[in-house]
């Protein structure tokens, strides 16, 4: 069915290799067709081995580990007769066992990958065959670059394809990218321009595609299509269907493959698990080097001792090699001792640590307290080897939106043409929504126990300097609202479409003004009211039209089948009817020259210099600066709703449409604004490739030609749409974005027909409203517009098309085009969106501060908004001193940083209302908080000012970075991590947090409302910020203490046992002889004492979880170097030396004058060593369970069973000695048990005494209540450590 092309690879011109050229297999150009064969096939292979390459390749990879090379070297060295320590075959067993176990694990993992590849490669799809001239079924692995692939609804895309045809008459296609980035909201893709509305015939496709070479950037695709006539059409990311995505809401689509197999973006982003190197491992390397030095010293001592012994030996009674000089014999003994004492190097410790970490991850993963029942998600541990770093965190860098807050945006207030509309009824609705669930908890500092613990502290809203809205302080789960969803909604959910976001209650005053559009003949009490409405109506209508269309929202219906295309509804009123309504209201429909897109002539009637409504009830909404100052805390009684006319539709016209519209938004901000516009009956009904269907307040659904969409980016901080206005026919630009940017761009609008002083008042009043919204913790956006002349638009269009068709510097050219368009805008108004604080955020931050963990907020929001949220989450207290840094240049920034340092150094006076320091950060300067904006941060991050910035930050309780870009976030984290040499943790939920998460030592992603980019880039993924509390204070504490204690124990037992062999050298002429059976020597650390340390490292709990949650200060006790420092290491080594001396010399003196043989002498020593090592762990363990008991019994039992079996069955072994009957004889004598008991007690007595005194000291220094807390402590956490089954 498909042609097989083989032979030598042809050489193609350089210009064809710098970029990718794609044509169809129907193209009549042999050179270009042959070029397609040079591209990778669609076969994927994620396995590392084949059957033939497995053994050599796996062995080669294992030899990259120094530990394996070390043991192989010793095994080979043991085959040299002059340095042989024991039978060579026995010396091979340890390394052979390690290699086989590792190889088996690698084989199983690779087998699973191969099985997955087999399934994926044999999935079926429909591909056009040029020979048969029809679409045929084929496997994914047979798809090639240049093939036409036809997909149906719910099909998975087999390769990266350029969309050429869609059955949707609008030329659009919807895809779900959940398999790629975890996002379930639909993404819209559109057919390449010039291919829309054309009957696609594969044989007639003769375009040549030039695009960039394969890369892993999911958000970028650059290229163009060139027709045989030379005409070019730009192609971009919205035309690309990515492999692994799923086609939705489209009956069929056709695309041409541009990237296949491992060159697809999905495969190039498949990097597998994240691996990092923990701080403990880096410190462990130092300890291993000390062990190496100790081994060398012991071996040199033995070599020197053997040389001296041979030199002084006179008339030996036993056979000695007299031909070898003492110097050479000492050299041989050095290497013999290296073999004998090989276990002193704790190389196997690395393997044990990896096993322990897997066990720790299992218990973290199955902790019920870290499970979100509402989202049905548990914590994900994506980095497998840095669990102990969770116990070393010193700085936490947190995003705000979606991390500290819900990121479930709700439209709260708006300001249009300088008039503020507070939406009192909407505010009451939000309070009622949460009031029922918050009743009884609102003033409680101690949350109740249970699977959901929520609280709201009254302290957080009693700040003297902040009027914090209750809406911003707490958020509860929405399970009640979700239970009310219908069955259809549950199966076809709409992103960011909670009932709270959708049910916006309109402002009665705004409804009254909009009603003049529908009912211009209504009787009014004041003649000026009509004129005022006429004057403001252009702003209001344009404002809500911008909210409805300036977005990338996908419109769908829950009752619509996935395979049935949505059909646009017939407008209730025609376009002519709508124009007549404007004329009846004396609002002429503009034809040209309109500065405000809807009706330029509106302002010809309104040049009275004032926009205020003469009605007495409207005085509060006047844009006059003297009358329009917004008092956000004033509880006014708004006019009764029945006093105003409403926007009324006929019942047949209204409800059904709105009830069936679903909005699929890429961000919650967009959804909130679209639902707000819908509340005022400006509803986005449909989105097409080149137009939008919008229903206006008059009841008419009109098409709005869509010319361009300039998406949001972090550089511009705004997005724009270019449309042709349905009434005026003019080109209009609608822009929404950050007020810090748009307020500057709207300073001098083009062709403004308003009086300059009136427009200046509008901007001034809007800025006051923005500041007020920010103080109340609302997210702010500005809305602006601009009308373009046709000549101006044509000039800009050429620049835009050139940028879209460019491959090199495409992003830069598009940015320049966007900046050229978004100038001289006219400000329409602003919005305030409520983003509620997540539950238990304040408790979590307070606990982290008590644990001496500094919390920084890095956000792109306004300074006032960030400060308000910081107060709400208790990062700031009323008595804290705010150090606000807002500078325009580098010099002023340097001076300000120095001033702040001097202020802190001189010790500012503390207010009498300061909160107790018991719940604050432990530093003396806990009352200083630095607030710095993005521009000042840019100066502070420069090398000349970094030192002052860091010094100031160290002295502050917290730092809040506002208006910061994603790049600045990562730069701040890197600066603190590298310069202060501290352990950093970054937590965020969106794509703008990815760089910060990747730079930090520990990256935590929150699976929230902004997709899964942060989660996929993180080391740990949680669903709520509150989970960070237990993750650090409990699991971080446990993981670090477990691993450090296990590491010290592991080194102790190795040193202790090796010293027994070393002490014996003093009685055998340092010859390298041992008093143990070779098998026992090899298996003692490999089998008999290997499992107890693992159980110790996985299950030990030095402190109960409810104590750790109730007293975060305990987190500081495990922070390096307190818990694991050189002193602890050397004390551990000294204890091992002491125990080895006792374990060796008590049996020595007990059997000193007897005729006992060396193996019989070694029997009680080995038994005592095993008991001492096992009971030493019992003394050190804080937790003992039946698992510990079972492991101890099995370890001791396996040793006894093995030595007895050797004693009974082994006729030859360890020549020239014979183990036959040795152990059975020794264990039959009472002296054996007496010696073992006395040795064990004497060896462990100092350790036991030290532990008793240490525990007694801890209790005496701690209040009785510290350790006698109730099971349900202040944290509300259950001490049982629940685990998911």
What would you say this structure looks like, in words?
The chain has 1285 residues and is of the alpha+beta class. Helix content is 43%, strand content 13%. Helix 27 (890-905) links the parallel strand 28 and strand 29. Helix 3 packs across helix 5 (88-121) and helix 38 (1158-1180) runs antiparallel to helix 39 (1186-1209). The longest helix is centred in the last third of the chain and has 39 residues, at 1027-1065. Mean pLDDT is 76; it is low at 1-16, 435-493, 523-532, 561-573, 584-659, 909-925 and 1263-1285. Residues 1015-1255 form the P-type ATPase C-terminal domain.
Strand share of the residues? 5-15%
The strand order across the widest sheet is: 14-33-32-31-15-27-30-29-28
Stretches where pLDDT falls below 50 for ≥5 residues?
1-16, 435-493, 523-532, 561-573, 584-659, 909-925, 1263-1285
Kindly name the structural category.
alpha+beta
What labels would you give this structure?
P-type_ATPase_IV, 9-stranded antiparallel sheet, alpha+beta, transmembrane helix, 33 strands, magnesium, disordered C terminus, P_typ_ATPase_HD_dom, disordered N terminus, 1285 residues
Write the layout of secondary structure elements.
Layout: H1 14-17, E1 20-22, H2 30-36, H3 54-62, H4 66-77, H5 88-121, E2 124-129, E3 134-139, E4 148-152, E5 160-166, E6 172-176, H6 178-181, E7 187-190, E8 208-211, E9 223-226, E10 232-235, E11 240-241, E12 246-248, E13 252-259, H7 265-268, H8 279-312, H9 326-340, H10 348-365, E14 380-381, E15 395-398, E16 410-416, E17 419-421, H11 424-438, H12 479-483, H13 487-491, H14 499-502, H15 508-518, H16 527-549, E18 554-556, H17 575-584, H18 602-605, H19 655-660, E19 662-664, H20 668-679, E20 683-687, E21 691-695, E22 701-713, E23 718-724, E24 731-737, H21 739-745, H22 756-775, E25 779-788, H23 790-804, H24 810-821, E26 826-834, H25 841-850, E27 854-858, H26 863-872, E28 881-885, H27 890-905, E29 928-932, H28 934-940, H29 943-955, E30 958-961, H30 966-979, E31 984-988, H31 994-999, E32 1002-1006, H32 1013-1016, E33 1020-1022, H33 1027-1065, H34 1078-1088, H35 1091-1099, H36 1105-1110, H37 1126-1150, H38 1158-1180, H39 1186-1209, H40 1222-1227, H41 1230-1261, H42 1264-1267
Parallel strand pairs: 15-27, 15-31, 27-30, 28-29, 29-30, 31-32, 32-33
Antiparallel strand pairs: 1-8, 2-3, 2-4, 4-13, 5-11, 5-13, 6-7, 6-12, 8-9, 9-10, 14-33, 16-17, 16-26, 18-19, 20-21, 21-22, 22-23, 23-24, 24-25, 25-26
Membrane topology: Multi-pass membrane protein
Catalytic activity: a beta-D-glucosyl-(1<->1')-N-acylsphing-4-enine(out) + ATP + H2O = a beta-D-glucosyl-(1<->1')-N-acylsphing-4-enine(in) + ADP + phosphate + H(+); ATP + H2O + phospholipidSide 1 = ADP + phosphate + phospholipidSide 2
Domain P-type ATPase C-terminal: 1015-1255
